[in-house]
Design a protein that fits this description.
- By secondary structure, this protein is of the alpha/beta class.
- Helix content is 38%, strand content 24%.
- Helix 1 runs parallel beside helix 2.
Length: 184
């Protein structure tokens, strides 16, 4: 499905820098899905409305997999779910409203790709809940780590610590994006 088919309605006066950031992040996610071929993608929080749609579209391109997006903000999760439905991708994506720490651990199967875009203080507790289900090669992306550096410090230390089981790298995306791959 071409990216133009996944456009999200933007209000007048939308920030072009944010749109560019969202487009770049969407492209990165699509590349990761196409390259890695994940079957079980979990997204905590909806940092940009179209990300779950873009993940579902990339899974559709692969012909397999599912993204489960969870956001504590009911209105945001409803907008994300409606966007997936409008794109005709409900077979590849689902959105639930509620605490990601309560909802995502109940999703069955191993975690192949984890996108953390919610409250920065929740990144580390959620990662620790899901780590037992993450196989080597699983990818973790955490959004907003530069903007909320102090609030993400413990999480980043966990990923970057030698011997942590991750190979981690900060990427230059707007608010900051940390990408880590589970090594063991």
């Amino acid at each position: 499905m071409p990216n133009s088919a996944l456009s999200v309605h933007r209000p007048l006066g939308a920030d072009p820098a944010q749109e560019d950031e969202e487009a770049a992040l969407g492209t990165l996610l699509r590349q990761l899905v196409l390259a890695v071929g994940p079957l079980n993608v979990l997204q905590a929080g909806c940092p940009h409305e179209s990300l779950a749609v873009q993940l579902a579209a990339a899974l559709n391109e692969n012909g397999r997999g599912r993204v489960m997006c969870c956001d504590a903000d009911t209105a945001r999760s409803q907008r994300e779910a409606a966007a997936i439905e409008r794109a005709g991708l409900t077979g590849y994506g689902q959105v639930r409203s509620g605490s990601p720490e309560r909802v995502l651990p109940s999703v069955p199967g191993p975690v192949d790709l984890l996108l953390l875009g919610g409250v920065p203080e929740s990144h580390l507790p959620l990662l620790r809940l899901l780590e037992p289900r993450m196989l080597p090669g699983a990818v973790v992306l955490a959004y907003g780590v530069r903007r909320f550096a102090t609030r993400c410090a413990e999480f980043l230390a966990h990923l970057r610590l030698p011997g942590s089981g991750y190979v981690s790298l900060p990427l230059p995306f707007g608010a900051g994006l940390e990408m880590a791959v589970r090594a063991s």
